[in-house]
Structure formats: structure tokens, C-alpha cells
User: What shape does this take?
Amino acid sequence: MADPVAKGEAMWRTATAALAALAVGAAAFGYMQFTKVSGLRAQLTAATEEAREATAEETDLRSQLSTAQQRFNAQAQKLTALRQAGAEPPSAPAEPAAQAPADSDQQPAQALPIRLTFHDALLGSGKVAVLQNLSDNDLEVVFDVQTPASNAHERRRLLVNAHGLRRLGPAQGLPLAPGQVVTLNSAKYRPLVQTVG
Assistant: This one.
């Protein structure tokens, strides 16, 4: 006949071992959840910082647009005043354009309405290019990166929405480094060339 005390001790040992295993499992699960939350928190912080930068850039663009609109309005008022006074308005740049030869190889005279800036990547190393479309139209551009040391090129075709932002950097599989030369090409405009700083 089994000793009741020994039987009770065996039951307590089994229960204690089961509780210990449960506690270890709970701790491991808690650690995995903590790690996952920490990763999500880092991504949220990065996204918040990018949103803050985009808001600042948008504010800057709105300020530039407002200044340009004020200049345009002032010029329009001067032109209206000259016409009402019966004076000839000053020659517009139409004459040089009319004198320009119709050479198909000649580059378009109009500047590409994109502002290109660079800043440090929030996650990892490298630089991020920010393209800001300053026009009222969507623009399709070819983003060309040349590394002078190796003369290697990498090209991406991009669509930048009207008054929109587009970012390119390590997160998009295109690490940029200081000294590389970025060229933006679009069919109707002069190329925009900048060195990554």
C-alpha cells in the first residue's frame, strides 16, 4: 500500500514542475511580444518623423507658392495698368523664342518643376532623396544615379503627383551616398542635375 505522504509529495512536485514550465512559457511569450512591440514602436517613430518632415516641406512649398502667386499678381497689375494707359508692354520673352532655331536636338528651355533635396535616412545608413513636384500636373521622370568612382548608373522611372512628394532611399532599395550624381529627366524639361550632399 502506497504511503499517502509520499503520494502527496509526488503530486506537489508534479504541480510545481507544471507551474514552473507554465511560468517559463509565459515569460518567453511575453519577451517575444515585447520584442515585437519594440520593433513596431521604432517603425512608428520613424514614420512619425517622416510625416513631420513632410509637413514641414509642405509648409515651405506653400510659402514659396504664395510668394510666386503674389509676384504673378503684381506683374499682372502692372501689365493691366500699362494697357489701360495705352503704353506698349515690355517685350516678353516671345521674341527670343521666335528666333530660336527649330532644332530637334536642342534641349527644352523650361526648367523641370521639381525641387530635389537630400537628407539622412532615418533607419540605417545612407541618404534619402525627396522629390517635390511644384507644378499642377503629375510628372513622369527618370531618376538616374551615377557613382563617379565606378561610373555605374541606376535608373528608376517615377511618377510624382501634382504638388506631391516622392522619397527614394534605402527603404526603397536605392541607397544613396554623398558624392553620387543624381539626374532627373522629363520629356518637356531641361534635366535637373544635383550631387548628393
In short: DSSP finds two helices and seven strands in the chain.
